[in-house]
Amino acid sequence: MSSIELSIEDGLARLTLASPERRNALTTAMVAELIDALTALRRNPEVRALLLSGAGGAFCSGGDVSSMGGTPEAGAVRMRMAETNRLLAALADFDRPVVALVDGVAYGAGFSLALAADFVIASERARFCMAFARIGLVPDLAASWLLPRLVGMQRAREIIYSAREIGAAEAVQLGIALERHEGERAIERAEELARALAEMSPRPSP
């Protein structure tokens, strides 16, 4: 059973993390599916913009912590990190505009995914958190590089070291999110922005 949903309509691709029972945590299977989906979208000349979201009232709760228990072999850890880095690269290097609709939690790697988007629209109930320090880890998916570019080095350190939660209003103030909206308006606004980007003129053929 797929853990993502993908549709394309009039040049706009909608990619949804669809594992709401786990608050869309990044399992190994979901990471692989996302990489494949982003690779296919990049090869599709009809795709002009991408709208990334999460199902069930959450954007992404981060990595699948349940799969990290025990003492995994170093090789397995390196393989998992290599795959998540491939996902981040596929999203950050996506050559068409990416709008992330953040509704509910964007924790850990979920926060990192949002940072890799070109634009973030947050619902009033959006909550961002670099939760890595809570479980003795350092930020992954390039968060330690992406976050300072938006908020500055000193504020990035505070956000990472404190592992505190950032609400939608503060996310806009810090430049993490472009806008915040209540309820269905957040969905509508993200769609409006993504649709407007999809309707822009494509680059001319060489």
Tell me what you see in this structure.
The chain has helices spanning 28-43, 74-92, 109-116, 143-151, 153-162, 168-174, 183-198; strands at 4-9, 12-17, 49-54, 98-102, 105-107, 119-123, 127-129, 165-167, 179-181. It has 206 residues and is α/β, with parallel strands linked by helices. Helix 1 (28-43) runs parallel beside helix 2 (74-92) and helix 4 packs across helix 5 (153-162). The longest helix has 19 residues, at 74-92.
Helix content: 40-55%
Which range does the strand content fall in? 15-25%
By DSSP (H or I, 4+ residues per run), the number of helices equals 7
Order of adjacent strands in the largest pleated sheet: 1-2-3-4-6-9
Query: What would you call the shape?
Result: globular
Task: List the helices and strands in order.
Answer: EEHEHEEHEEHHEHEH
Q: Biggest β-sheet, characterized? A: 6 strands, mixed
Mean pLDDT: 91
Instruction: Give the termini distance in whole angstroms.
Output: 41 Å
Give unreliable regions as ranges. none
